[in-house]
Recover the amino acids of this structure.
């Protein structure tokens, strides 16, 4: 498989992010290792206190990255890769996003020595749809992409739908993960009681509501209309075709209890899809888990609250660096 690459492309194109856009952020409550704690400095990483004021965070300039496409047996997927010799971090985007969803994370982690990678799944921005008859497995697409890029072990970060695919990958290939971060994800868990809880959270007509209302928390929407517009711009071009790829696993609680991959569950306290009570259900069945609840935040903590999200992830990755 040979990629078509354009080296040293700046992911932070003005048309992508807009010049001088300022986005809102604020505070969080951390529970690392199951113990709630006021966040200040943990593991040498500064994290704002839970009562910190709500700052506006400009979208940072992006570092140079290589863009390319990987040819899988039945589809071509677009990715970008900052390169370098540091531990890889692979980002798996929400259903409402694409490989463009990470402007806050790309420079933050690349400047701290990590190799940062993101890709668009089938049907998303700059990736092909693949055949209609068989949308394939998200886990196997990811495995082939990693093999192509020469990535053996990595830190995985999955938000919303991306978290479901990351958990599925972890169940199939746990040896390839240094750690994983799952944010606000419904996951692909098949546990009946869990599925019933998720169904009760979404009334009839839920999916027909505006995407920014469903995905972004009310504090963010009230404080930062410019940030909402940028997020909607990315969202509106992120999906070419809605494709539901199959999972390789249908896990129940015992499957999670056997999983030994260090896991951070990062949730927004105003997540309409999956509130912190759902996070706690998952955490109760993961043997190596830390949790993060981000204050005044909806379904997209990586976008809404990067002041909390990024340093918490950095601290977690450093703790699980082997």
């Amino acid at each position: 498989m040979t990629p078509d690459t354009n080296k040293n492309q700046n992911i932070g194109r003005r048309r992508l992010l807009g010049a001088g856009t300022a986005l809102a952020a604020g505070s969080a409550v951390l529970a690392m290792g199951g113990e709630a704690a006021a966040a200040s400095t943990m593991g040498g990483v500064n994290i704002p206190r839970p009562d910190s004021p709500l700052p506006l965070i400009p979208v940072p300039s992006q570092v140079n990255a290589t863009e390319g496409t990987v040819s899988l047996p039945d589809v071509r997927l677009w990715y970008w890769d900052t390169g370098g010799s540091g531990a890889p971090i692979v980002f798996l985007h929400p259903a409402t996003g694409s490989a463009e969803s990470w402007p806050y994370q790309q420079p933050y982690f690349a400047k701290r020595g990590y190799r940062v990678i993101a890709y668009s799944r089938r049907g998303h921005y700059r990736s092909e749809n693949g055949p209609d008859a068989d949308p394939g497995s998200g886990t196997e697409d990811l495995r082939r992409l990693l093999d192509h890029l020469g990535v053996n072990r990595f830190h995985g970060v999955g938000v919303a739908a991306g978290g479901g695919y990351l958990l599925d990958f972890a169940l199939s290939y746990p040896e390839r993960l240094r750690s994983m971060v799952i944010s606000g994800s419904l996951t692909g868990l098949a546990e009946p009681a869990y599925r019933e809880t998720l169904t009760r959270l979404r009334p009839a007509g839920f999916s027909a509501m505006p995407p920014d209302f469903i995905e972004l928390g009310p504090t963010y929407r009230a404080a930062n209309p410019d940030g909402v517009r940028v997020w909607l711009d990315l969202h509106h071009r992120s999906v070419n075709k809605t494709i539901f790829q199959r999972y390789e696993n249908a896990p129940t609680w015992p499957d999670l209890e056997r999983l030994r991959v260090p896991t951070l569950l990062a949730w927004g306290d105003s997540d309409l899809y999956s509130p912190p009570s759902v996070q706690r259900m998952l955490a109760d069945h993961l043997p190596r888990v830390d949790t993060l609840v981000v204050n005044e935040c909806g379904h997209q903590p990586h976008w809404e609250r990067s002041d909390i999200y990024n340093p918490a992830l950095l601290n977690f990755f450093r703790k699980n660096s082997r």
Notes: Residues 1-39 have pLDDT under 50 and may be disordered. The chain has one domain: 6-319.
